[in-house]
Amino acid sequence: MAEPSLFATYWPYYLPTWLVMAAIAYLLARAILSPFIKPDSLNVVWRMLVVVTEPILRLLGPLIPAFMVEGLRPVAGAGWLFLAWWLFREVMSGYGLVPPTALD
């Protein structure tokens, strides 16, 4: 019988990790592009970034300080998501659901 793949064994870890890391990448891309593109631009890439990241920023809104500059809000959101992912990884590690790495 074939040995199950790492993804099949650890999918409860890989799937949320992939989603959170993608959200962090989109938030950072929005923060990097924001000084160069007007907020109401019709640029397709910018519109996609706004559509994808706006719900995330609304969800994280209570955690982001109100005095923060609008262009840095995505960076703060990415920081909170990274913290959430790190806590998720620690919990999964406690249950033995984190895949082995070369450093283990």
Present the secondary structure layout.
Layout: H1 6-33, H2 44-60, H3 73-94
Structure explained in plain terms:
This protein is an all-alpha fold. It has one domain (12-94). 64% of the residues lie in helices and 0% in strands. The chain has three helices and no strands. The protein has helices spanning 6-33, 44-60, 73-94. The two termini are 27 Å apart.
Write a short abstract of this structure.
The protein has helices at residues 6-33, 44-60, 73-94. By secondary structure, the protein is mainly α.
Determine Rg (CA atoms, Å): 17 Å
Number of strands: 0
Number of domains: 1
Overall shape: it is elongated
**Average pLDDT, to the nearest integer?**
91
First-last Cα distance: 27 Å
Largest sheet, in brief, is: none
Instruction: Please state the structural category.
Output: mainly alpha
The number of helical segments is 3
Tags for this model:
104 residues; single chain; 3 helices; mainly alpha; elongated
